[in-house]
Design brief:
single chain; mainly alpha; two-stranded parallel sheet; 2 strands; disordered N terminus
Amino acid sequence: MTDEHYQTTLNGEPLQPDLTKTTNLENIDWSFENWNTQEYTHGLHPYPARMIPQIPRAIIHYYLNNNTINNNSIIYDPFSGSGTTLVEAQLANINATGSDINPFACQLSKAKTIPIKNSKIKSFEQSLLQNLKTQLQSINNNQYNTENIRDGWFPQPQLQQLLHIRHEIQQLQQTNNKSTAR
């Protein structure tokens, strides 16, 4: 992880300390006022009472910098919620596992921690966006079956457009699955 995401003052001093260099937990302002809590995959989905990432980041790096844990360690989060600690451990190159009683929390944690290569994301994005704008403009309101979708959530034609985007993503996934199975 780099400190590129930290804002700096005119003289180059960081406004917020680099938590990856934490060696003393007593010197940290635990309010983390005005910090970005949505970076990386932390903002993927709202979650009630979500822990801000700076807390596990500071703690993980405190223990790393004091040689209490290392890259061979495993962090266990028994109440992982949305997976904030799991993501921060992954960013610090530490193995982590978690559990939660809420099945949605478990799915969200999995989604937030699946490592995906940037090149694969860029390729997928290019494939999806290639002709999507033109396709979305030409969709008529009756192209996709909206029977099982709750009325009023999305107005027409946006509902048809969202269904088309979902269809395109599913097609790309199928194509990707076929090419990786070979």
